[in-house]
């Protein structure tokens, strides 16, 4: 990349490589050295947005989930959305009851290995694949049963389309969780969906607010405010606290973009949004893309031969030597491990960009996940909707995309060894070996007197100093205005009613004769002395 290359150039290059025309639903995500997620801004230079050293690690993601994914014009777009939702299912973002989970997994199995074949698929073959963070034998049997009896003859495209139609009806479709705390200190997860703003707390959806009810979003430091206007002129303000100011700003920007994309009729209606107040500049942000209605209208005009789709096959787990339709890690050179594992969930290379939670429970718990249907989205935020028996707690969502290839290999080797997603502690250990971490360690070793301030801390210090400077300038300006008013009152001949009333007050007369006149004489004396000194020299 050229140093001044914009994000739009990189995104267009990637979409051209993928032969993708309906590209407005997608984006590029990256993580800074402080483990904070960001969406690449297309109007800014790529290099200036990256605070790490090259080579940069970025991930292609669905940024705006389609309101109706089955209605997408091209099969290549549906396939990419299918990969993203499949990844959401694997990482526990897409919660559902056991029967729905089995059906979704069966669709994935049909799309990627085809019809059931007794010669190729021995007993228990569905247990060799990882669709969810946790499996149970009952669920695996249900997946195999549906795959054998109900989906035979479906092409990959048909299975993917049915998968999208089913996923769209789930309560947590399109959820990209942001960890926060409410005013009582309770953990919560905020998310922006195609239909509105969602707050998940414990095992319930405590708020669902449609986009046309959201009047304003702003943030101050770690505090995020959502202003809501509902029926009968009922106005409420929801307040949540993010882990860091950077996380809160990212949450705010995501909210601004999602509201503009799903709510507005035309991109010409997009306005620059500011979080500023009277004395402090704050942040200004403007969504730069097209809105959902324009994207759908543009998609309807696409007329070309459907591009060829190169589908990735499912890679079985380490305990499946009898199924050979996917290569195993041990038989693949180190340089190709990323390409091999990308086919597991088209995103396993960025396991940190996930929200780890259990979409299905063990057999002893039965159908534990009760997800309301799509009609529940239209209900008011007063209703508390139970989304699961188990708490929705994607605790690792603040540690998303990997920052280097080396950390990816450590993560994959760890997962290959134990057959389960890495824990937060393991991920932190793997991150310690990344080039960014090593460079930071070397910098601290060379500059021990620097106090170990990271880029984010230094930026916060600079913001604080700028805020103090602005406050001082405003104070000096007010004092200067008051001084001018005082001079006008005492020295001018203006005889307006306003000035006359002030001059006739006893307090002003006392101030004028006891303080101002002596001060004026002292100042005039000093000024004459300075002038005489200059003349003598």
TrEMBL record:
Pfam families: FA, FERM_C, FERM_M, FERM_N. Keywords: Cell junction, Membrane, Phosphoprotein, Transmembrane, Transmembrane helix. SMART domains: B41, FA, FERM_C. Coiled coil: none annotated. CDD domains: FERM_B-lobe, FERM_C_FRMD3_FRMD5, FERM_F1_FRMD3. The chain crosses the membrane at residues 464-490. Residues 353-377 are annotated as: Disordered. The keyword Ribosomal protein does not apply. GO terms for biological process: actomyosin structure organization. InterPro entries: Band_41_domain, FA, FERM/acyl-CoA-bd_prot_sf, FERM_2, FERM_central, FERM_CS, FERM_domain, FERM_N. The keyword Nucleotide-binding does not apply. May be involved in regulation of cell migration. May regulate cell-matrix interactions via its interaction with ITGB5 and modifying ITGB5 cytoplasmic tail interactions such as with FERMT2 and TLN1. May regulate ROCK1 kinase activity possibly involved in regulation of actin stress fiber formation. This is FERM domain-containing protein 5. It comes from Sylvia borin.
